[in-house]
Write a structure and sequence with these properties.
Layout: E1 14-19, H1 30-46, E2 49-56, E3 60-67, H2 72-93, H3 99-109, E4 129-130, H4 134-150, H5 165-170, H6 190-196
Antiparallel strand pairs: 1-3, 1-4, 2-3
Length: 199
């Protein structure tokens, strides 16, 4: 399936979104969120992934990532493949009250696609957007970090554990990220000043 977005320059950072099929709220459980975090840490340490920002919501993850080896498409493909297999394994082997329902949904999703034989976990496509400027980087970081605020999960973005907002505000987080160059607050832009209150 072609979602109309392609990674044309494998060396540049991109904003990408990975969404669970049928928008199933898999990541409402910590055990599955932790798979995403552990896999990001592995990719940073072993696969030349650079992460500038991320947020894990109940059924999708937003990332701003780059490949040091100029192989971003391969990196995303491998990340999705590994996390899908790991999460599906945990759904089948760990306590999960929604097991049968989720597996049935994942199985039904394979009927319209031939790539996966048994279960389809992630939707096809990542909606990649090339980060072409610092301003665009910060507009995407704001979007990522304010997701939990807009969803009513927290009052301030930096209070949400599964996000890079605390890396930018408190210099600590679940994973080590590369901070974008621009300051968070740009006094020449009133909108950014107002948004800063939500961090």
């Amino acid at each position: 399936m072609n979602d109309g977005y392609k990674i044309r320059n494998q060396a540049l950072p991109h904003f990408v979104t990975m969404t669970v099929v049928d928008w199933i709220d898999v990541f409402s459980r910590k055990i599955y969120r932790d798979v995403l975090i552990e896999s990001l840490i592995y990719c940073i340490n072993n696969k030349a992934m650079m992460v500038y920002g991320y947020v894990i919501m109940s059924n999708h993850i937003h990332l701003i990532i780059q490949s040091k080896e100029d192989k971003l498409s391969d990196l995303i493909r491998d990340y999705k493949k590994f996390t899908a297999a790991s999460i599906l394994d945990k759904i089948q082997t760990e306590p999960e009250s929604r097991r049968e329902w989720m597996l049935e949904r994942f199985k039904l999703s394979t009927e319209s696609h031939s790539r996966n034989k048994y279960y389809q976990f992630w939707q096809y496509g990542n909606h990649p957007e090339e980060i072409y400027s610092n301003n665009f980087m910060w507009s995407k970081l704001d979007y990522i970090h304010l997701n939990p605020v807009r969803a009513g999960l927290v009052e301030k973005a930096s209070h949400y554990v599964y996000s890079s907002a605390s890396n930018y505000i408190n210099n600590s987080g679940l994973i080590a990220i590369l901070k974008a160059d621009n300051p968070i607050i740009d006094t020449s832009n009133l909108k950014n000043v107002q948004r800063f209150d939500l961090y």
